[in-house]
Write a structure and sequence with these properties.
The structure is a single chain. Strand 1 and strand 2 form a beta hairpin. It contains five helices and two strands; from the N terminus they run αααββαα. The protein folds into two domains: 68 residues, Arc Repressor Mutant, subunit A (Orthogonal Bundle), CATH 1.10.10.10; 36 residues, no CATH class. Helix 1 packs across helix 3 and helix 2 crosses helix 3. It is mainly alpha-helical.
Length: 122
């Protein structure tokens, strides 16, 4: 995970997304323990409250859970939840904008599909 202090996204969001990415790529499997708030704050030289805020987002979404006195763990079903969440975000951020731009340029559905296929082969 990398924290970019020049990024416009808040650090706590970067923490949450970094852990999400680690879960999606298999670095953390379901029921695996994730780094503690202290470990995150020391590793990235950030305020523990900032790290906690990022972790709290994932707890609220049911992606991770706390075992009292032990630490934070990846929740069962977290990968599926994250994929569904990210697919919806992908649609909202990329596909809708792609279609809007295609309509402005007069690009047909068939042409878009051919472009996507070309992208997969290049």
């Amino acid at each position: 995970m990398h924290i970019n202090f020049e990024d416009e996204r808040p650090i706590f969001i970067q923490i949450a997304e970094g852990i999400e990415d680690a879960i999606l790529t298999g670095a953390f499997s379901e029921n695996d323990q994730i780094p503690s708030i202290t470990e995150l704050s020391v590793s990235y030289k950030i305020n523990p409250a900032t790290a906690l805020k990022g972790i709290a987002i994932l707890v609220d979404e049911g992606i991770i859970f706390k075992k009292r006195g032990v630490g934070m763990f990846v929740a069962p079903g977290a990968v599926l939840k994250l994929r569904d969440k990210r697919k919806e975000l992908f649609y909202d951020h990329y596909i809708k904008k792609l279609i809007e731009e295609a309509n402005k340029l007069g690009i047909t559905r068939t042409e878009i599909l051919k472009m996507v296929e070309r992208g997969y082969t290049e």
